[in-house]
Predict the structure of Bet v I/Major latex protein domain-containing protein.
Amino acid sequence: MVLAGKLITELGIKTSADKFFKLFASELHEVQNHCEGIHEAKLHEGDDWHDTASVKHWTYVVDGEVHTCDESIEEVDEHNKKITWKVFGGDIDKQYKVFKLILEATDKADGTAVAKWTVEYEKISEDINPPNGYIDLIFKITRDVDANLVKEKVAQ
């Protein structure tokens, strides 16, 4: 009986790794303005969106249904452009004991960039499916954010 797992996806992005990472590391509140799949994000506890003690509340769509969760930042590694979030509460706790989301943004030697997303999870029972719908949401978020960041660059 395997309850824990990881899902990983790497997506090519047109914007630089620095710019993509910066949005999630220091402008997280703006993600909802870039993505159709996120309905709302608000600061739930704390004074700063990017403080590890702060908790954010998210409303989003997975598999065609509206879900909610809370999130806090576990770690930000500026040097490696890596962020780890702990996701909990709301609909997450109904299926998972542990749910972490990790973003790593990397520039490639050929001038392109990649956003690597990892979902680490532990299901509450073997009857629960892996969080494949969250990978679909991450794909959509990445595409929407990247497209909007590219538009902003062109507009400047």
In short: DSSP finds three helices and seven strands in the chain.
